Amino acid sequence: MSFASETKGELCRNELSRRCCAQAEAYGVLLFCNQFSAAGARIVTESEEFARRLPALFKKAFKLRFDRQTEPEHRGKYIFAIQDADKLSAICEVFGYDPGETLAHHINFAVLEEEHCRTAFFRGAFLAGGSVTDPTKRYHLELATSHYNVSREMSALLREAGFFPKETTRKSHYITYFKQSETIEDFLTGIGAPLSAMAVMNAKAEKAVVGGVNRRVNCDAANLDKAVEAAQEQIEAIHRLEERGMLDELPPKLRATAEVRLAHPELTLSQLAEALDPPVTKSCLNHRLRKLMELGKA
């Protein structure tokens, strides 16, 4: 099951308590579903939980049944439709539409005056026309509608609620979307999906940890490469001194350092400093190695 499907399943566990909120949620469903016009309403979903919720939602909101609905046991897409003129008229009356006119949809803000109704409206819009990407991959939540004015007015509603979406178009749909993880978390929590919001938070935290580990590993690998390269240069310089017969002529401390470096090419500077007899500081060892490098280049 996809993350979006899990999120919709969680949203569908919210109870249908108030009729005004049921109407607001149904309003969001209708404005963001596949079709809502004077000719009829058609809702298509792949979510089994949403398919189970829809009949109860429309009964609570409008006291009516769908003219057509796919049985919940059906696998694949669930289709719900209303074509009956009297039912469409009853729905339009709730939202202040004149069913005798062509519907160029706008959001009737008067229906959404209460905060709990706006929240229900957002939930319905997401259930019918929303999606959210698996946060382990990327952060993206969107609401898609075929109604231009509805998309613009939804953006205004979201801004009033403290969210600041972006807008785009995709084929014949108008998209309102978020890409900030914090905004997605807050939106999901607000519409009734706190577990999904927590999943976004956890994914973000895991990415931060993995990113930190990767940066540390990359840094350690780079440092190791530099240490290996430096040790190789030191050994080559010592071999040149040996070829010239200069190694035995070096001062005892430099000669001892050269011999330890040749014997232990894999050791770090700290380990090499400890291997000397007597041990020396890392700074002292650095000084000796630089001197060997200079002599080896001469």
From TrEMBL:
Q: Which ranges of the sequence are coiled-coil?
A: 214-244
Please list the residue ranges annotated as the WhiA LAGLIDADG-like domain.
Answer: 43-93, 119-207
SUPFAM superfamilies (alphabetical): Homing endonucleases
Give the record's family classification. Answer: Belongs to the WhiA family.
Q: Which organism is it from?
A: Pseudoflavonifractor hominis
Q: Which Gene3D superfamilies match?
A: Homing endonucleases (3.10.28.10)
Per the database record, which ranges form the Sporulation regulator WhiA C-terminal domain? 213-295
Which purpose does this protein serve, as stated in its record? Involved in cell division and chromosome segregation.
Extract the HAMAP family matched here: HTH_type_WhiA
Q: Which InterPro entries match?
A: Homing_endonucl, Sporulation_regulator_WhiA, Sporulation_regulator_WhiA_C, WhiA_LAGLIDADG_dom
Q: Provide the alphabetized UniProt keywords.
A: Cell cycle, Cell division, Coiled coil, DNA-binding
Specify the protein name: Probable cell division protein WhiA
Check the record and name the NCBIfam families matching this protein. DNA_bind_WhiA
